[in-house]
Amino acid sequence: MKASVLSIYRFSRAQVEELDKNRQWSRALDGSDYLPGMVGLNNIQKTEFVNVTIQSLMRVTPLRNFFLIPENYQHCKSPLVHRFGELTRKIWHARNFKGQVSPHEFLQAVMKASKKRFRIGQQSDPVEFMSWLLNTLHMDLRPSKDASSIIHQCFQGELEVVKEYQGNENKESSRMPFLMLGLDLPPPPLFKDVMEKNIIPQVALFDLLKKFDGETVTEVVRPKLARMRYRITRSPPYLMFHMVRFKKNNFFKEKNPTLVNFPVKDMELRDYIPSLPTAPEGEKVCSKYNLIANIVHDGKPEDGYFRVFVQRKSQELWYEMQDLHVAETLSQMVELSEAYMQIYEQQEK
């Protein structure tokens, strides 16, 4: 029975190529109208951290296209890979039974693969889940240990890391790959204004990205005190940022409310990181990026909730999504949110 049901969710390569041009609404068999790719996901007991992650990844065109065609990973024996593929096909299909999708089978595969680190009934962090999911999918998909995968083709960039230890003049330099960049928010002010309300500070993404210009020093204390300089030496087709909003200590979890001012379109990475390497002669690589997904956190650190803004490419419209709630919104609303994790897409070469 399952095989026959899943055979309904098939895509030809021609259909996949046309997905981002489609402006048509679909009617589900239960009579509800929905936009393929813009369907709500059931929250199965505190699983919104999974839902916002999935909705964000559905905007990454090469990743989505890869998983829409099961033949691309038929060699793979990982249940997680196949459940992720099934979920991708259900979200983007134009002939669904309902105008919403349940990620239940995918969640079962997540619980098993993560040894219940991520599970139904327990809220988790989308940044931790995104990191785990991408790394696990990569390891399951690669045919050999040193091989690449669609995950690395989309998200992997490279950093040059220069490390100086106190009292040691020698510098250690190394190259390391990354899938996501952590951006440190400035500490919030401890004082209140005359109205006895906390002042919510703001910071520009431009300032946060200076951490990766190769000159700005970041001090770390673990494993021992060191001065670090980071420089992006290769930027990936999809840049993922994580705003470090939460800090835990032995007693409680704190949230930094600082608002980040960021561009939705035409982020010129070279303006932020002048030392970004130029493309080899004869190659045209664009260093401009557009935002395609923005996960935000609302409320208090312990009992707040996550939602996500995503872009529908066929009409360049923005949608706000939180579990089953899907609503068109203005790009200005995206900019006013407490950004927690973002995905930027490199513009066409």
Automatic annotation (TrEMBL):
InterPro entries in UniProt: Papain-like_cys_pep_sf, Peptidase_C19_UCH, Ub_carboxyl-term_hydrolase, USP
All copies of domain USP, residue ranges: 39-347
Record-given protein name: U4/U6.U5 tri-snRNP-associated protein 2-like isoform X2
Origin species: Camelina sativa
Classification via SUPFAM superfamilies: Cysteine proteinases
